[in-house]
Amino acid sequence: MSRARWEFVAVLGLLCLEPVRQSSNAPYANHDWPVYGGNSENQHFSPLASINRENVSQLREAWRYDTHEEGGLETSPLIVRETLYGITPDQEVFALDAATGRQIWKFGSQLAGGQPNRGLSYWPDGAADERILVGIKNYLYALNAKTGEPIDNFGESGRIDLRKNLRGDFERQALVSTSPGAIYKDLIIVGMREPETLPAPPGDIRAYDVRTGQLRWTFHTIPHPSESGYNTWPKDAWTYSGAANNWTGMAVDPQRGIVFVPTGSAAADFYGADRVGDDLYADSLIALNAATGERIWHFQGVKHDIWDRDFPSPPTLLTIRRDGRDIDAVAQTTKAGFVYLFRRDNGEPLFPIEYRSVPPSNVPGEVPALQQPFPLKPAPFARQKLTEEMLTERTPAAHRWAVAEFRQMRSEGQFVPFSVDKWTVVFPGFDGGAEWGGSAVDPRTGVLYVNSNDLAWSGALVRNSAAAKSLGQSVYATNCSVCHGEKLAGSPPQFPSLLNISQRLKRSDVENIVTNGKGRMPGFSSLPFDHVAAVIDYVWNGGTAALGSPRESNEPSNSDDSGARPAYRFAGYKKFLDPDGYPAVQPPWGTLNAIDLSTGEYLWKIPLGEYPELAAKGLTNTGTENYGGPVVTAGGVLFIAATNFDKKLRAFDVKTGKLLWETVLPFAGNATPAVYEANGREFVVITAGGGKVPDQPSGGVYIAFSLPHAAN
User: What are phi and psi of 400, to 5 degrees?
Assistant: First the structure.
């Protein structure tokens, strides 16, 4: 393929094709989808063009594979030489004939899966040794790609326990593997998901030998003495602080031997008196030597994060055109709706970044950073500050309610510390902006495609006190109220209500969830047995005492407070929804964006998703919450599902954002599609599982679409 690439130029609202240089990352060597995100660079791009903007409307279902399990799916499968590899909601791994959906093999680890699992890793050493590497709970398995059998000489009988080689008693470490590891030569580089309250293990980035399972290198995201960044934490933080972990995945530049690692916030998420300082390498994009784990460069997007503003998406590698030169770049999208763009080799920003003063905290013990970084270009892809003029007008009653609620909150834009006297607006909310689905890029154009949430949430702090009436109430306040709220009501659908849980689940099921986790909830294996029993008693009985509200939380701590807990804790997540359950801000509530990263300018921006019941009443194109990313093809088509409520898979024209095709899935497709060729036909496959909307069924179905035989 030539070195020409194509750049889209907007003229009178339409885009014309002009030749420009092609990325060095294309073309692909084959028509498979062998890596999570499509390739090591995480471009979400396929060079296939049999399905294109002219014929995509003819797509039909080619096959479906129903796992007959509940719980939802967030995974993107791998396809290698006409074999599709996937995972079920219960985390059984399988291989299918990619042309027909016929099962070839299935592996069950005998572990009770329940965490989201977003994909697998594939590693070949020629045709003689092909391996599927998959994280199931706290284990990393190596399976024979042809048979599904564990490879005995990998780790301990075919698996590695990722709790080991961190610190302390490994059996008390709470972590799970939710995103696939990055492959570089004979290494698999992994992160992990952890609790967002203490105790939590450190978020070490680790590389293991793909053949043996031996640990080859470790990068400490909470630096040890003598390591770079150590002075940005209290001196002993490396012995007790936790998280600053990679939970969303990575990208690899195989030519330069660099792995790009985005990290999340340090624990606890919302009060950092025990981690005063900038807290490197939390909330950072870190470029590491993939062979040794040595740091090459880093950028910290949030200093001393007290808002849970993780870097939530795997970075995307691309090549841009600047001043007549080609520059290999890495793009990082964020929950705040920012896009950061850097040179891959040295981390130089390719658009200006301005450090602005941000408000101080009025909470004793909290010391936020005085300044935070803001990219000046591209413009944010999500709204940044909620004002009264932006409140819902869906109905007069909903508007009046929203105004009354808004006037009780503090809304001043990004990086406003939470307080104990008033709820503070977080906009975009805790789930983005961007999320774990990540972005797609057309390597021929340098255009980035990113879907975004555009909803408001709010948060506040309450004072911890030893005045809890029971051990269960104390354990709940410290570990559970951050998600499920002071009064067990949660903030559905992300954080379910625990009220009347005894009528919905068996006690043994609740004990298993507390210990092992389920969905987005991590396990709390570090809790002693009596603490687990006590908190289950507390929840089982509906909470025997209210835990207070922000306006009641200024009372002094009792003198018998042990001091083991922080002085303040999060009061709970509150999504800003009107009394009917719809976002209390004006649409769009979710968007799909196309940004030319050579110029930083938007090519187009459209709402993504609808509420079917509102659309039936004429309120269309509102956008909705969406989870899962887009893919782009050489046929000029962008495929994305992601939307929570309408359960649709859609195809758009990459040049204009025009809708070309859509179909309704059996469950919401909260996942990223994959594109591949098998038996001479191009396929698009999506996993549909739902699970994010209360009172709606969930499942686990893989559905592949292709053109009718005559159209191929």
Answer: -60, -45
